[in-house]
Amino acid sequence: MHFLLRLSMKLVKMKNTALAIGFIAFVLSASTFAYMIEPETFETWFNSLYFVLTTMATVGYGDYSPSTFPGKVLTIFIYVFGIGLLSLVIGKIIDAVADFNRRREAGRLRYQGKNHVIIVNWSKKAQYAIEEILSTDPNIEVVIIDEIDKHPYDKPKIHFISGDPSSIDILEQADIKNARSAIVFADARIDEPSLVDGKSLLLASTIESIAPKVHTTVEIMMEKHIQNFKHVKVNDFVLSHDAVSRLAVRSALNEGSLDIFTQLLSRQKGADVYHVTIRPEWKTYEDAFFALIKQGATLVSNKSDMTINTKLNEPIPTDAKLFAICDVEVYKKINNVV
Q1: pLDDT surpassing 50 at residue 338
Q2: What's the rounded Cα separation, in Å, for the pair 301 and 310?
Q3: What is the pTM of this model?
């Protein structure tokens, strides 16, 4: 009994790889011995393998059973050691799955993927951003980076990395170099706006230093800090609360206009602004404008230039990036998106 107890303790402490090799070796050798002892009973080696596995799983259908003394001794051996070994393997598998889920929830797993969106600093605004991203494209994967110790939004395609987002190691765990874009939200846990922007500036500069090709958008608390973010070559920045104030004014001065801005801000309803692929036959803005109108879209800008409808006769620049307002079905038709 003491021997069996010591053997069980050693098996429990075995590494998963060694245990898997031992389990396979046990099954194969037991199957081979069973076939060698009673070839008439099992007829083929595969049948003996089937007998060993059903015996270890305690199902014992009875369609194969040894009739000789050595065969029965081997069966007893399989009962004593095989059933315990199989139970141990199943337990190890369950432990491995549970450990994986614990590490995933704690943000300890390295993300492996491409063209994902990284969200830095968790908040309610970050949650709204993720919901907006997924409503735009349900296939996009999102990686959240924050110093909290538990996954804040555990849903499919939402991954979590726990740690200091200004650390290069943490950013590499999120595979920042292969990311499509990164959004840095202001840290809501810091009360002083200057300190918030200082932290965001540090994060943005770290991202730009190791992944300059990744499109970076940063939320800024104070307008006077915009110039500092331009120095680190942040692609876009959003003034915190600025949009809310401006929308409130638009609503007060132009009754009914708020619904228009709301539709443009969210892809969850109504029309939206989409990038339009330039066709070879479009030589001027006028060509693009009328071609899009016929398909149900309205040309609004070339990059940030929203005055192009006042210069329709001008040729479209080679580096142009046209945007139009339309619904998602029209967008798919225009850009041949399936």
Answers
A1: no
A2: 11
A3: 0.66
